[in-house]
Amino acid sequence: MNAIISLLPAPFAEIVHATWQALENTFDLVGIQRTLYPHFSWQGADQYSENGLLLTLQTIANKTTPFSIQTDGIKYFAGDRPVVFIEVLKSAQLIRLHQQMWAATRPLSTTFNPYYAPQQWQPHITLAIGDLSNELLPEVIDWLKPREFQWQFEINQFSYYQEFGSQPGQLTHHFAFKPQL
């Protein structure tokens, strides 16, 4: 999977890293380790037309000023392998930027993950994925609940994240938003 993401700033990235480590130590959850970078995702696809994507992302970044996002605690996606995450609240600005990116990148791939379509997209910061069972889910949620995950921070960039085979993914390009005047 390849993805367009925004990295979390300090100290929030460090808090997420520490939470990943604590989930591993406490519950032996290691599925998140394929993702080395605390982030939230704008979009994902198996493959993009890379040159077009890089130009498109740079163009969007050049027209975007940094802005604040808020998180609202722990949530999860249900299923055979649930995903536990910190919810990112959908502000009007976040929704507009996501819709702009979706429209601009649609011609650049035929293998989009449908969960990133505007009507499905739930921005989030993943804490546990891939190896969390439904039996363990309530215990993990209860363990996370006392922690403070209601944050506000500034997003000032996109990054292009690529996975190569079974190796952990890598950030291959960064796109800084235009500075505020």
Question: Briefly, what is this?
Answer:
By secondary structure, the protein is α+β, with helices and mostly antiparallel strands. The chain has helices spanning 12-27, 50-62, 92-105, 137-144; strands at residues 2-7, 39-45, 67-77, 83-88, 124-128, 152-155, 157-162, 170-176.
Descriptive account of the structure:
The chain has 181 residues and is α+β, with helices and mostly antiparallel strands. It is built from four helices and eight strands; from the N terminus they run E-H-E-H-E-E-H-E-H-E-E-E. The strands form two sheets. The chain has a four-stranded antiparallel beta sheet. The chain is globular and about 45 Å long. The protein starts with a strand and ends in a 5-residue tail after the last strand.
**Helix count, per DSSP?**
4
Query: Strand content of the residues, in percent?
Result: 25-35%
SS-derived structural category: alpha+beta
Poorly predicted residue ranges = none
Q: Rg, please?
A: 16 Å
Give the neighbour order of strands across the main sheet: 2-1-7-8
Shape: globular
End-to-end gap? 36 Å
The helix content, as a percent range, equals: 25-40%
Main pleated sheet: 4 strands, antiparallel
Average pLDDT: 95
Summarize the helix and strand pattern as letters.
EHEHEEHEHEEE
How many E strands?
Answer: 8
Q: Features of this protein?
A:
181 residues; alpha+beta; four-stranded antiparallel β-sheet; globular
